[in-house]
Design a protein that fits this description.
Shape: elongated
Strand content: over 45%
Radius of gyration: 34 Å
Largest sheet: 9 strands, antiparallel
CATH architecture of the largest domain: Sandwich
Number of strands: 39
């Protein structure tokens, strides 16, 4: 028994000694050693730069990670991380981003090797970068076309192609081929009002007329043409988004306004909301709503002049207690202009329809059955603003009363239909192709609003 106790004691001492030895080793910081097997000299924007690095530690401490960082000036633009479980050679790649307006120059390439005790060693290299000079780019259009763009003799970054289009608008993105053995294909697409690399969303090239259209793209600045500014009343409209232009100003009831900049803007292919505009034989638009501040949006995607009543240049108008201001419709997918099948509201507040205030406190909207509203499924309501908030309902006790004597529609009261929603009465079907005028009279205040529906 005593021999057994001595044996146990001896084993514990040995374990304690080994533990102390390990603890001593674990406190050592180590000494990572990083050696490059690659000569870093030059590369192109858009390259995937390959590298080979040898990683060890003179203190025999296990390694953790090898990180590669690329800087354009002080900005970190690319990172690669490799797990280093053993000593030896490690191969990797780091992407060299292609950005606009970055001139040829010298980038900084930094490698950091770290062991498991967080001890690091760094290696820095200068890397000369140049922009690739492409022999050609490719324009990919939304109709499936593919067009070669060639560089200008005076500017190696300016590319162009001419295509024939039946529309004044061409939509497409641009593809640059992989350059050299380490390059990558780069695409250029639209991101809102900007062109950025890495996207295939369509850029809108809008010409003043259909026919032969020359399209240009600068692979250095990302500038492109044609990007004309359509005119409203002789003033250039403001580019807002892809194919969307806006004009803000004071509109006068009965005044004719000119549109221009693209041949078809004054043609019958554009939808001119009759509640706001009457189209004249000379292509001008006579304003029908009361005089005030408005924003007109020229939507080249839908070929649609959309009008919003405005409080100021950046704020839409809302309904006031005396009936002035603005009135809006938000509803299901079976209502929308110019056509609910491709632009239904679907309860999206950003698609709210603004009614035309035709006289003080009196608002109207004209909807063509089968085109702008379903003949059999009506479900929308009037809001006091073009978002969620105050609305009319069908309760006599409400502060926002809306009543109607229409034989076509009724206002839901919570028992029959949701509060304030408009529905077709039982057995009613709107006549396909006929226009129906919805008029809301708030001239006696928003606690006594009335609705009439008239078939034109």
């Amino acid at each position: 028994m005593r021999t057994f106790k001595y044996l146990v004691f001896t084993l514990l001492c040995m374990l304690f000694t080994a533990s102390c030895s390990n603890d001593d080793n674990s406190t050592a910081p180590g000494n990572p050693v990083l050696t490059s097997a690659t000569a870093f000299t030059s590369a192109q924007f858009g390259d995937s730069l390959s590298f080979k690095m040898n990683a060890t530690d003179e203190g025999n401490i296990p390694l953790s990670t090898l990180k590669a960082y690329l800087y354009y000036g002080d900005e970190l633009v690319s990172t690669t991380i490799i797990r280093t479980k053993t000593y030896g050679d490690y191969n990797g790649k780091i992407y060299i981003p292609y950005y606009k307006n970055i001139p040829n120059g010298t980038a900084s390439l930094k490698f950091v090797l770290q062991n498991t005790h967080f001890t690091k060693v760094e290696k820095d290299y200068d890397l000369a970068l140049t922009r690739p000079k492409y022999a050609s780019l490719t324009l990919m259009t939304s109709d499936g076309g593919s067009y070669t763009m060639t560089p200008s003799a005076d500017n190696p970054y300016l590319f162009s192609t001419t295509i024939h289009s039946e529309s004044s608008k061409v939509k497409g993105y641009i593809v640059a081929p992989a350059s050299g053995t380490s390059g990558n294909q780069i695409t250029f697409g639209a991101d809102g009002s900007n062109v950025v690399q890495g996207l295939t969303s369509y850029i809108s090239f809008i010409n003043s007329r259909a026919g032969d259209i020359t399209i240009t793209f600068n692979a250095y600045s990302y500038d492109y043409t044609p990007l004309f500014a359509p005119l409203f009343n002789g003033t250039a409209m403001t580019y807002s988004a892809d194919g969307i232009y806006t004009y803000y100003g004071t509109f006068t009831k009965g005044q004719a306004y000119t549109v221009g900049g693209a041949d078809d803007m004054s043609s019958d292919s554009w939808f001119n909301d009759p509640d706001f505009f009457t189209k004249n034989n000379d292509g001008t638009l006579t304003f029908n709503a009361i005089t005030g501040s408005y924003q007109v949006t020229a939507d080249f995607n839908l070929k649609y002049f959309k009008v919003y009543a405005m409080k100021d240049a950046s704020t839409t108008a809302s309904l006031q207690s005396n009936g002035s201001g603005a009135l809006w419709i938000i509803g299901n997918g079976n209502i929308g202009k110019p056509n609910y099948t491709n632009n239904g509201i679907n309860w999206a507040t950003e698609k709210a329809l603004c009614l035309s205030q035709v006289s003080a406190g009196v608002y109207q909207i004209t909807l063509v059955a089968g085109t702008q509203i379903s003949t059999t499924d009506m479900n929308f309501k009037f809001f006091h603003q073009n978002t969620w908030g105050n609305e009319f309902d069908g309760l006599a006790s409400s502060s926002y009363v809306l009543s109607t004597a229409s034989n076509l529609v009724y206002v839901g009261d919570g028992t029959t239909g949701d509060n304030g929603n408009l529905f077709l009465k039982s057995g009613v079907t709107l006549q396909n192709g006929s226009a129906y005028v919805f008029t809301v009279d708030c001239s006696k205040g928003i606690n006594a609003a009335t609705l009439t529906v008239t078939k034109k």
